[in-house]
Design a protein that fits this description.
The protein is an all-beta fold. Helix content is about 0%, strand content about 55%.
């Protein structure tokens, strides 16, 4: 089993920055791709960013150049640095890992950006 706990959400103004963290327990995840998703009200959950075990990153077009995903394998933790936030970034953000064919999710953390 894998447990994921996020932290770092909050309410900010457009143009501000926030950093999210996801701490995993139960298994060491250094060899797995991990990532971040978000779900805005009335919308489907969407992938925001992923980072592979080797450090390769992928981003949805909406956040390229503004968000940075990183990981610290020694801490079994990954991060999402969000800069130049926009009102359309408002959503509940979830960290994710697929371990042994099953998706594991954090509890979600709210990010609210006011324009």
């Amino acid at each position: 089993q894998v447990q994921l706990v996020e932290s770092g959400g909050g309410s900010v103004q457009a143009g501000d920055s926030l950093s999210l963290s996801c701490v995993a327990s139960g298994r060491a995840l250094r060899t797995y791709t991990v990532g971040w998703y978000r779900q805005a009200p009335g919308k489907q959950r969407e992938k925001v960013a992923t980072i592979s075990s080797g450090g390769s990153t992928n981003y949805t077009d909406d956040v390229k150049g503004r968000f940075t995903v990183s990981r610290d394998n020694a801490k079994n933790t990954w991060y999402l640095q969000m800069n130049t936030l926009k009102s359309e970034d408002t959503a509940v953000y979830y960290c994710n890992v697929r371990w042994l064919t099953r998706d594991y999710w954090g509890q979600g953390t709210q990010v609210t950006v006011s324009s």
